[in-house]
Amino acid sequence: MARTLLRVPATVTRGEVVEIRTLIQHPMETGFRSGENGRMLSRDIIRRFTCLYNNRPVFEAELHPAIAANPYLTFTLRVDESGILAFTWEGDNGFSQTETRTLTVA
């Protein structure tokens, strides 16, 4: 399982626009580089990132080989109700990881 860093405020006021920051540790191997033995390294990238808020999509990104290792994504979200944020990263070789955080409207 890859290490993730998520910055989500614990509490917000109704209607507030908050910044969400995500980072996942992943090598993002493009498949265009050769290894020590001279053979091409297999492609291994995160292809898709999705954030759901109370099971509704609020942010999606399609990633490509040009993205650097350890992709960092940030976006804003207008919050009207308390709920669960579900962050999902999907990639090559069957990679999939989901993390959740609770967002409380005070």
UniProtKB/TrEMBL annotation:
Residues 9-100 form the Sulphur oxidation protein SoxZ domain. It comes from the Bacteria. InterPro entries: Ig-like_fold, Ig_E-set, SoxZ, SoxZ_dom. This is Thiosulfate oxidation carrier complex protein SoxZ. NCBIfam families: SoxZ_true.
